Each structure stands twice: as C-alpha cells, then as structure tokens.
Amino acid sequence: MPGQARHDKRWGLASALLLCFAATAAHAQLTDTEQRIVAAVKQRTPQALELLERSVRINSGTLNPEGVRSVGAVFRAEFEALGFSTRWAEMPPEMKRAGHLIAARDGGQGKRVLLLGHLDTVFEKDSAVVPWERRGDRVRGQGVGDMKGGNVIMLEALRALAAAGALDKTRIEAILTGDEERTGAPLERARSEMVEMAKRSDYALSFEGSAKVGGTDMASIARRSSGGWVLTARGRPGHSAGVFSPNAGYGAVYEGARILNAFREQLMEPSLTFNPGLATGGTSITYADDTATGTAFGKTNVIARDFQVRGDLRFLTPEQGERVKARMRDIVAANLPGTTATITFRDGYPPMPPTDAGRGLIALYSKASEDAGLGPIGTLDPSMRGAGDVQFVAPYTTGIDGLGAAGSGAHTDDEDLEIASIERGAIRAALLIYRLTRL
Fold first, then answer.
1. pLDDT tens-digit profile of 57-71?
2. Which DSSP letter does residue 382 get?
3. Is the confidence at residue 12, as pLDDT, over 70?
4. Nearest to residue 249, comparing CAs of 307, 292, 293?
5. What is the CATH code for 2-223+352-436?
C-alpha cells in the first residue's frame, strides 16, 4: 500500500541517519555542552528524589481520577517551569478516567521527539501498601518504579538540557497518560491524542522501568501485544451416569479442558503466550466484568452444561497474531460429542515488532550511555516485558522503551526503586534527547 511504503521508507531513512550518527560518534568523548548536561543532572539528584517522593505520596490509582489529576498537577508545574505549554486532555465522563497531561515545546528546529509516561498506578485508594518508605539506597512504595520514577527521570533530563542551554529551539512533546494501567474504553478514544502526537514525531522515548539482564542494563525496541479471549463451551446437561455416551456426550467441562490442552500442545512458539486467567464450569455460571469475579453452580452427579475461560493473548507481530487466532478457532471447532464451543478475541495493546530503525535508536542510546561512563545498553527480549503505551505510537514513529528507573516488584506490595538509577537514567535520557534533536 502506498501509505505503508512511505512509512517503511521513512523508517529506513531514520535508521540510516541513526547508524550514521552512531558511527561518526564512535570514538567521540562528551562535548562541552554534554558535560554540562551531565553535571546539571548530578547537581539536582537530591531534588529529584524529593520530587519523586512528593508525587508518590499522592495516591493515583487508575480508578482514583482526583489523585491522578493531583499528580498531573505536580508534573504540570515542572513542565511549565521549563517553558513548555501544557494542557489537560479530558476523557468523556462515561469512560471514568482522569485524562492525560500534555506538554509541548516547539522551538522550530531539529527532529521532533515525543516523550511518554503515565500518571496512574495499580495501587488504588484502598491499597494497604505504604506510599513511601526509604530503605537505605532504595525506596519502596506505590508506583515508585511504575512509573513515577520514570516521570521524574524524564523531567530531570529536560531540566539538565535547559540548564546547559540545550533545550532552546528543540521540538519536544510529552504525554503522561492517566489510564495506562487500566486503559479506558473505547481504546481508540483513550489513545487518540497520543497517536496524533506520534504522527508528527520522528522519535518516541518511553520511560517505563529499565531492566537488567546478566549485569547489563536493557531497553526495549519490541513489545508484544496485550489482548484477550473468551472461550465458551456448552454441553448437554444430564445424569452423570451417562457421561461419554452417544446421547449425553462429554459435557462442557471436558470440552473446555480439551481445548485448553490442545492450545498448550499445539500453539507453543517464540514470543507467544495465551494465558487462561479465570475458568468457571458447571450447570450454570456467571461473570462480573467490573470485579473480574466468576461464580459457578453444579453437582457431581450432573453433566456440566456451561464452561467459560477468560484469558490474555500476547504476540510480537500482526502476522503472528492472525495466524494464531485462526489456529485457535480451528481447535475450538473440533468439538467432542454432545458439545459446542466458541471463542472471541479482544484487541488491546497492538504489537511492536523490532525494526532496523529501532535497532539504530538503541545503538545511539547505548553510545550515549557508554560515553557517559555508564556502560552499554542491551536489547531486551520482548517476552520479558509486558505491554505499554509505546506500542500505540510504534506504527507511526521510531520508539524505544525502558528509559525509566531500575527496581523490582512492579505491581506488587514490594515495588521498589534503586535511588541511584534516577541519576543514571536522567543522564542517559538527556544525552539521547540532545543528540536526537541535533540530527
């Protein structure tokens, strides 16, 4: 298609530019300006931690719109102090989501860079997790790593650029979403602003938490999709003494079990997972979407009539997704005697396959890290990271993720952050943004 051809050509040119820049700088040291950028980050390290604490102590679970807006107000003031124009993108009331913080600075020169973060956390207002707890060189609390630490790194990188006079004339936009952990519906509306920003950007940098493998810090240029599926099986209810007979058949539970086992035996391949998260079966079943709970009624001497499974599906490319969905439908259709079954799919986060342009971008990021004495950056296997907002922009620009803070236990009661990773992350991000905006 002509549009796709233009898109591929742009990615090819972007990749060539990045690789050319990386090769040219292969033996370069930090310039005077870059040294000032690094110094500015280090000077602000105590204040950066204070900003993180201030934002973390405000509960901003996705379903706490007031809290999300309050955290947004904290970061909005920081953007405005750096000369960014800001606005709050409201979502329709029926979506029950807080909306997004958008910041922009258009200096009229250089490549356009889009920065991605999110304001919400998985910790809702009734969470028993302590909001903030210092433990030596680490901090534990609600959303410290996912991803208020990443938001602070983003802002500290921009602040260092400003201190070195390197923010002038740049064209940078940022969007901090308010519903990354539980995206509002419809999805198209929830991410419409982000998609439009991506279409006018040359690069997208996402500040989800960084990862470490074998002692090497890693970033992501590929992420798997995140969607869902619902499997429903029906059987003929009757006395259990007749199960397996031609008249009674096998019942819904056996049919569901057959399908799940066939998925496990026949669908395994790299970068693919299909997790059954909730299963209910019996004479009658119910499911409540708002609480993600199911109930079932049945007796041991009655053949099950109903069976349902709700799961998620993750794949790396659109082609892989379509092929796997077709195979799952074929397996579902091969029913046991006396049963029927159907499967439906729900698309969520789109896949972000690896590209040459992405490889060029991570090479430039790694070079910036090495030049700062922080070591190389590796490419994280997409199976080791969940879904994120960068996937919505991937069809329109060249993106990288994992520029945020280092920590552990994301989404758990023990979520924590390594304090030193704020300074490392801000230095790396600032140098990358500086170099990208000079291409």
1. 999 999 999 999 999
2. G
3. no
4. 307
5. 3.40.630.10
